[in-house]
Amino acid sequence: MNQSLRSKRGEGYIDICVGIVVLLSVLVLTLNLYSFLTLKQDLDEISEQLIKTATSSGCFGDEFNERSEALQSQFFDFDVSVSADSYYNAAYKRVQLGKTMRVTVSVRTKIIGVGVVNIPVTASSTRSGISEKYWKG
């Protein structure tokens, strides 16, 4: 027993090195998870503000585009796609009172892996609302 305790073959050093590598891997994964959670929270906030703007104006027009540009300058560049159940006027993307409107905000990002591995992913958030404006012909 005493001989095995006094042996200096370097086994303890290898265990410590492996432990440090595992600890750093867990740290990197934790930071990635945190960055994705904050990204998702930002996307949810952006989509919520955009759908409020769209439903109050009843269209995906100039006011919506201005709000989208303001949010892009405040947060980061993102892609916006819009849709509705039916448009009152497709040219101006007007939506009649009581019809559903949807906004999808997405951003392309990468998962930073351990070392040189980068995995591209797309994070998105979708919100829907009901138009609050009546368009008369």
Terminal CA distance: 95 Å
Which stretches are low in confidence, meaning pLDDT under 50 for 5 or more residues running? none
Tell me about the biggest sheet? 3 strands, antiparallel
Number of domains: 1
CA gyration radius, whole angstroms = 25 Å
The run of helices and strands is HHHEEE
The total beta strand count reads 3
| Strand arrangement, major sheet | 1-2-3
What is the residue-averaged pLDDT? 87
Strand content: 15-25%
Approximate helicity band:
40-55%
Overall 3D shape: rod-shaped
How would you explain this protein's 3D organization?
With 137 residues, the protein is of the alpha+beta class. The protein has one domain. Helices cover 47% and strands 23% of the residues. It has three helices and three strands. Strands 1-2-3 form a three-stranded antiparallel sheet. A hairpin with a 5-residue loop joins strand 2 and strand 3. Helix 2 runs antiparallel to helix 3. The longest helix has 47 residues. The radius of gyration is 25 Å and the shape is rod-shaped. The N and C termini lie far apart (95 Å).
Question: TL;DR?
Answer:
The chain is of the alpha+beta class. It has 3 helices and 3 strands, in the order H-H-H-E-E-E.
